[in-house]
Structure formats: structure tokens, C-alpha cells
Amino acid sequence: MTFAVPANLEAQLDELVTHYPQKRSASLMLLHALQEHFGYISRDAVEWTARKLGLQPINVYELVTFYPMFRQEPLGKTHIKVCRTLSCALAGSGELRTHFCSKLGLDAHKHAAQTTPDGKFTVEFVECLADCGNAPVVLLNEDLLPKVTPAQADEIVAKGKSK
Amino acid sequence: MPQEHRLILKHADQPGYTPDMECYLRHGGYDALKKVLALAPKDLPDGKKVSPQEQVREDVKSSGLRGRGGAGFSAGIKWSLVDRRSGKPIYLICNADESEPGTFKDRQIIHKDPHQLIEGMILSCWANDVKLAYLYIRGEMPQGAKLLNKALDEARTKNFLGKNILGSGYDLEIYVHRGAGAYICGEETGLIESLEGKRAYPRIKPPYFPAVLGLYMCPTIVNNVETLCHVKHIVNMGPAEYAKLGTPNNTGTRIVSLSGDVKRPGYFEIEVGKVTLGELINDPAFGGGLREGRKLKAVIPGGSSSKILKAGETFKLNRKGPDGQMAKVDVSLLDLPYDFDSLMAAGTMSGSGAIIVLDDTRDIVETLANLAEFYAHESCGQCTPCREGALWMSKALHRMTHGEGRKADADYLLHIAQNIQGRTICAFGEAAAWPVLSFVKKFKEDFETKGAADEAKAAAKH
User: Fold this and answer.
1) Is A143 among the domain residues?
2) Smallest Cβ distance to A133: which of B181, B195, B267?
3) Which of A48, B114, B227, B414 could lock onto B151 through a cystine, CB 3.0 to 4.6 A?
């Protein structure tokens, strides 16, 4: 399959580039948009971005490897980011992540992001999500969920399975 | 009775208050902008003229406003350092990369009152002759970014942004720029690199002081979300009235984020220095105390990078005595006024205003291991002492929390931490070292007991 950015998306990206006096500045915003559309940043997406901004591919690739939010592989449709950092840990986020892992047949001892073989879920430990008063918190795709209980975790899993 | 004083969050949690333009306008929104645009140049007795912009810059300085992001540096002085003679454009960046563990105040503003932030930004841009500004929001706040984009569109429609703002001849554009999950982007020179489309490697100072060589090597101001909101209130109230809030040298209000082992975690806006750490933790108006049967073990007072304070500690603070003379007085941990200077006098900092409370059920080694893992993950990797040291500390603590501690680990950790601080390009080195230094020094017994017990267990196996 050849890599193709739809015209309407490309128009949006061209508009984003105009926000900056130097095109290179638009890199992160372009990568966000491409990841949102394709689900991850492929080699082709890196090269396409580099061409668009007049950069070498390495200038873009080094961003993909530096910034934790960028992915080089497809993510699950339901992306569960459990906060690992102190306030959430004190409120049981470690147990919460283990609960998600065991429900989904993932290895709780593995630290890195894991995706289920059916591609439906990705479970990940992330650093502070800046909502510590509502610990433990989960960023579910784009929605931040406060004070997540194991029962809510089960609901998230059930919903994600039916997707 | 200590209580909240809501200035920034005055409307945010009122029923029916929404983040849209119409609601903001109904609550006096953008009046401060109209006020400054109507200001006339002031004539000084010596015949010099003070421009309206200069007047507002002077007001921010005399209000005593200190940065709410972490360093607590005078906002007015930060602005006064900007190189205005270079002929290059001046940029302003709002640092909305809220990532210091324990902190969740900027989130409230962005989600509940985005126009207040935008008005604060417009005022600050206008006062500093900025024509192009960016709002750098952390990647993990996608909803916040959408809200801000919507609010910016509304502001453009009303001509609070764009060309010839309200007929004043002043042009300004603000764009949202999203980060992508790196804590180091909160460091202002790292943020600037990130905004230039690069890895967020902080720049060395000197020479790269943002006020002179910032974004695109142009003079740049980087201010925190909450700091920029205060500018609106300084304009509205006047600097003298604003400075009556809080305490001398610690003026205004600030939003405190309280989390960890309290009954009522949450955010509370207080007059700086008018409420003590003990009141924030225990008063029913704030944290409501610890859970039943628990005792206080320690407090992390200003975000995870601040040095931990141990229950029962006392500190020497300068206080005015009844005779009007300053004298050193003993102040206990819970009686520390929550402000920049008192926390500094206690050997720590109020940082981003984030308090994490630990009760006596918490294992101090586990707690530090959690934070050390954060710093090991977030080190940008540019400076060897930090890249390697943060990881060594985390590995040692991981070992200690997995039954393989050694009695010598306490000193080993101190040794590494001491070799990070002061040896890195940016303050992340200190941020990674300080928790380790303070935890291990203040709770050395916990570390040594754990290490010794593991060693005894290992010896018994052989």
C-alpha cells in the first residue's frame, strides 16, 4: 500500500505550517495530525513530513524516538494510559494497571506499552497526567477519567471489546 | 479561620460558568484589555514620556508578582530583561506544559476559564510589543488544546486577536502548539527547542537566556499559565491593591494542588503566605486532615522536585518580634506559611505549588523509588551526569524495593545525587537529585534498615 495523505488533511497541515516563521517548528503538530489519522508514525510518514518541511528524514525521525507520545507501530483502538507517578501510585494505580493487564491477558511485569494481539487495546504506564487530586487517573484515548476503580476498569474493557 | 481567596478561579467552579466567550464577557471578560488600550502616555516631571506599555510593565513589576511555574522569579524583572533594542521580533510563549508531579492547577484554568488565560496573554504580549505568541500545551491534554483553539477562534472573531485589535493599531496572533509527552519541555529553553521542531534539549545559559536569545534566537518571554492570568488582575485592580493580597514579597494569590494522603485532595486558591502548610493539610476548608488512624510522615511541599519535609521538623525563620526587630524564630513544619520565602528558608521550595502528603503507612524507600523512576524516564539524555545518574539511582532503588538492598545503598544514592546537581545544563539535574538527597538524609534509618535486612536475608541463604 502506498502512503497517501488525503487532500483535505494536507490542506489542514499546510495551514498549520503557516503558524510559524520557520517551517521546521511545525514538526510536532504535523506528527500529531499524521498519527491521529494513520494511528502511528510510519517510515513513510517521517519521510513525507521531512519533504513537506524541507528537512532531512533524520530531523523528523529523531523526534519520533524522543517524544514518548509518538508511536512507530499501530496502537490499540482503546488506548489506556494509566498514570504511574507518585500521587496516583499512592492511590493504587499500580494495582489498577495490573488489573487491566490481567483482564486483557497482558504481562503486568512488562513495563513498556503493550497491545493485545487483536489490536483492540493498548495498555501503558505513563508519567504524571496532571490531575493528581483525582488519583488514580487514566487517559482513555482523549478522555481523562478521574478516580478510576477496578469496576470502571472492567467497564472500559467490556466496551473496548465490543468495538 | 483560614480560607480560600479566589481570584483566578473566582468563576471557574460556579454553577453555569462555561468556557465560552459569551460567558466570559458577561463576567467582565476583556475589560482589562479595553482598559489598557485606552491608556494614554504618562508625562513625567522631567519631561520624559512613559508609554502605556511601559506603564503596565512597571505595574507588573511593582505588584510583586512572582512566577507560578516553579522558580518563583519576579515576573516584572523577567520582562525587564527582554532585549528591546535588538531590532528582532519579541516572542511570548505561555508554558502550559504542566507536568511537575503533583501539579494540576493550570489544567483547571485551561479547562474552565480559557479566555482568562488568553486575555492575560494578550495583555502581556501588548505590554511587551509581542506580535506573535505561542501557547505550548502538553500533549497529554488534547481536550485542553481543543478548548484553547476554540477560545482563540472566538477571540479572533471579536477582534481581541488579529490585525488592528479593537482599532488600536496593535496586531497579535496566538497559536496553540502541542507537546508530545516529554517533561523536559517545561524547562523554558527545552520548550523553545521543542517549539523550533527539535528534541527538547535545554540550552546552556549563558549565552542562551531567552530574554535575549530565545525562540529563533530572538528575545523571548516564557511565562506560566497562572502567572499570565495574574497580569489581568494586576491591570484590573492596580498593582497597589493587588499587592495587598498575600504577604510582603509573596504577593497575590496562588493555586495550591493538594494530593496524596489527605481526606480531601484538590486545588485551593489562597493568598500567598496567609495559610500554613498545616492548615492546607488539616483544615476542613482544605485537605481535611489525614485518614482515620493515620499520622503524618512527610510532606513534599512544592512538586516532586522539591526537597521533602519530615513530620516534626522545625525551621529557623526570620520573623519580626514584638520590638519590631527581625529575629530567628523556630517554626514547626505545620506552622510554615505557604509562600515562596518561608519554604525556601525551610531548605526546600514552594515550586509549582503542589503538595503531596505522605502518612505513616507509606514506605519511604518505595516512595523515592517511584520518583526516581520518573526522573530516570524524563531525563532528556543530553548531560552525562543526569542521563546516567538518574538511571543509576532508579536502578538502585528498584533493587532496594525488590528485596536486594544493601546497607551501603543510602550513601551510594547520596554520592550519585551529589554528582548530578550543579553538573548539568539545566535545573533538571537538581530536580532529580533533590528528592534523593532529602529523602535519604532525612530518612537514612529507613534506607539503612531496609538494606541491612536484605543483606541479612541474602547471607542466611548462603
Assistant:
1) yes
2) B267
3) B114
